[in-house]
């Protein structure tokens, strides 16, 4: 019999006030029931806020290096349980086991990085314009951080958000995707084992409308960090703007990999296969557009189509599998719909374009890696985010044309260029309108110690990861200490006129 899980609110594991639960099933085999998870509501969110308020009062007064010590212990526990966590993640989300291990490793890297930042929450000391006066700034906690995370990186993205928020001294309420609730459940257990005060972390399972919405709207939640669709992010942005909340949005992408005529085609082939079909294309940074110079287009596309057709689909826990399932039937149906759009708009299928059903695929959400050629920049499959294993190949003639095609979409997350020309590589770093650009690597592969995020409809200017995220989760306070013993009036009487 499958286990029934609970929320973590007020320092204890509790059932949802709604009395309702939802099933969490293996997307590679829907007969495999992982567990039943709370289908919570606004009352559960309100209880979490009350507890997080108490937790913030204690945690914000805890020295930042001590907060970092706990996160380092979290990293140690993640290392010790990496394989078990990766196996559970693959069962829950579907990505192949090697990728799940990488997902856990991102959590490990983020834990150690955040732990060290507990001793590096720098302010600034600057000279005052007045005599006998000290001027400085420091970073202080904000309050309760509400975190809403997606399904595709069940460990990495929650840790990207949670660990910096915690080391900065905030308390946290997290609502993970209802598609992958078990991984965050395990993460919260690890945080508690590492010594995090129980009231500092609240876990509320549920759906966007019934948990995410009241979390965003609650007046006592000062910070919201959301990763998900641009449409949902726009609604959250309107709410947070009206309520004057600090907000970080990480949303869609339509990322292009550019292959110049001087590129190492063997390297580019490996890169596009990994970028387009890793995680079954379910990454905001997935390579969903391939721009190929006309001089190498035909021979490169032939090799690519053959290689994609050879990719092995299957349960991610099978070491032979290279591509896992989509997360649910709605995602697979969306992929099918966009394959139809591609054909309607005049593109040609070079590989894939169909479900894998029957036999060992009968109870999973599998879809063949799909490649379209003859795609034009105005085709729907070249402009809209699909979030599945569909690659649109576009032929171009010049570097300038490739840049225009890359930039002429609503999103601006990631891009890449393959070239042996060093000057052209640096031009691409300047010209491609994205938050991230890779040279001689695909559009995926962000590292925990660099800022992650994009421009245009991908985000709202804030970044996950790296040093910038610590500014997001903290307030800067300016401080002045006047020890002159007299009234000194800045900007009024300290300059001769």
What does this structure look like?
The protein has 2 domains: 3-251 and 459-478, Aldehyde Dehydrogenase, Chain A, domain 1, CATH 3.40.605; 255-439, 3-Layer(aba) Sandwich (Aldehyde Dehydrogenase, Chain A, domain 2). It is built from 14 helices and 22 strands. The chain has helices spanning 42-59, 64-80, 82-93, 97-117, 156-167, 181-193, 208-217, 230-243, 265-277, 297-309, 329-344, 399-407, 422-431, 468-472; strands spanning 3-4, 7-9, 12-14, 21-26, 29-38, 124-127, 133-141, 144-148, 171-175, 201-203, 221-227, 246-250, 255-259, 287-293, 348-351, 370-373, 390-396, 411-412, 414-418, 436-439, 455-456, 474-482. Strand 8, helix 5 (156-167) and strand 9 (171-175) form a beta-alpha-beta unit. Helix 3 crosses helix 4. The longest helix has 21 residues, at 97-117.
Q: Main beta sheet, described?
A: 7 strands, mixed
Mean pLDDT: 97
Strand content: 15-25%
**Helix proportion range:** 25-40%
Helix/strand/pairing category: alpha/beta
Could you give the topology of this structure?
Elements: E1 3-4, E2 7-9, E3 12-14, E4 21-26, E5 29-38, H1 42-59, H2 64-80, H3 82-93, H4 97-117, E6 124-127, E7 133-141, E8 144-148, H5 156-167, E9 171-175, H6 181-193, E10 201-203, H7 208-217, E11 221-227, H8 230-243, E12 246-250, E13 255-259, H9 265-277, E14 287-293, H10 297-309, H11 329-344, E15 348-351, E16 370-373, E17 390-396, H12 399-407, E18 411-412, E19 414-418, H13 422-431, E20 436-439, E21 455-456, H14 468-472, E22 474-482
Parallel strand pairs: 1-5, 8-9, 8-11, 9-10, 11-12, 13-14, 13-19, 14-17, 16-17, 19-20
Antiparallel strand pairs: 2-3, 4-5, 6-7, 7-22, 15-16, 18-21
Helix pairs in contact: 1-7, 2-4, 3-4, 3-6, 4-5, 9-10
